[in-house]
Design brief:
InterPro entries: PLAC_motif_containing. It comes from Erythranthe guttata (Yellow monkey flower). There is one protein chain. The protein has 67 residues and is mainly alpha-helical. Helices cover 52% and strands 0% of the residues. It contains four helices and no strands. Helix 2 (14-20) crosses helix 3 (22-35). The longest helix is centred in the middle third of the chain and has 14 residues, at 22-35.
Length: 67
């Protein structure tokens, strides 16, 4: 999640945070996902569909690339 959203690894490394206080780390990740618009009741696939707005393939661009 840190690399996907380019979050800073401060004040301590993730490994240390998860080893010392796993429940705090999980709560922080939960709040971060909620802040970014995820609905935990939908699950992974529900949120993917919500973010993609039901799109299953890339949009078609007529004519291709032109210079």
């Amino acid at each position: 999640m840190r690399s996907q959203y380019m979050l800073a690894e401060e004040p301590c490394p993730d490994l240390l945070l998860h080893l010392c206080c796993e429940s705090c780390a999980l709560c922080q990740e939960y709040r971060e996902l909620q802040h970014r618009g995820f609905d935990m009741n939908l699950g992974w696939y529900g949120n993917v569909d919500k973010l993609n707005q039901g799109l299953t393939m890339a949009p078609f661009v007529e004519g291709g690339m032109n210079r």
